[in-house]
Amino acid sequence: MALPPVFQKLRLPVIASPMFIISTPRLVIAQCTAGVVGSMPALNARPASQLDEWLAEITEALAAWDQAHPDQPAAPFAINQIVHKSNDRLEHDMQVCAKYKVPIVITSLGAREDVNQGVHAWGGVVMHDVINNVFAHKAIDKGADGLIPVAAGAGGHASVKSPFAMVQEIRQWFDGPLALSGAIASGGAILAAQAMGADLAYIGSAFIATHEARAVEGYKQMIVDSDSDGIVYSNFYTGIHGNYLKGSIRNAGMDPDHLPESDPSKMNFATGEGSNSAKAWRDIWGCGQGIGAITEVVGAGELVERLRREYQAARKRLLALA
Hints:
The chain is α/β, with parallel strands linked by helices and 322 residues long. The protein is built from twelve helices and eleven strands. Helices cover 39% and strands 14% of the residues.
């Protein structure tokens, strides 16, 4: 099955994943103009009214880029919607996305037919992230256009499943758009994702260590200084298992190797006074296992260019083996 037109003008087969707190218009615009899908969570815009301002900024900047660079147009952008019942902003944020006809909506933590139908009504594409084959079936049954298997090693909320197993099982019944997530931080890994059967790579943590990312310098430097041994998998902070930098946990006065289990029912994405999810991501830093490939803080465009060179070199290596 051919990819939807929205994915066919990418200069590199990559979706930059939406990162809570980290992703803002500055990073999204830099990603899109570099030729990969840029994205951000709707909930990063606070107060809610800021989402309208941010989407206006993104659409205007990309339109200006396209006018100035007709031979190298910007890639489309995506907005992540948390569709969990605790997200009290979903209806508002979907209305704003409809106003700007957001090209791609990435849905997380639940699959909802009404959300998918709403996106389709304005001509958008829905990609839904999943941690297993069961959830993948549910997402497609409820109208998602594509899937993002979040495999072991992905930053933030992640599965424990091998990317080989996830892609293999999904491709047995689904031939639509597939973006693989999990420890992808090099051009060779992007090509490997495609060799497994994915159409696109879904990359997050590598973009934290960029100048445009809204992360404190200590966070960026810890990624540069760390590798997969510096990551811990825990559900203590949000009720959902995810990968975090051990150094940030130590900085918060806790032992990353002896974290207690949390109650999944405490998961809460409300934006009112009682919400504490932002603190978990602000002080305890999510990160994937692929960061051994990150050796310096660079601009997002420079990172994409490095990935493109590595991707082309990996293709040449494999062709030489044929």
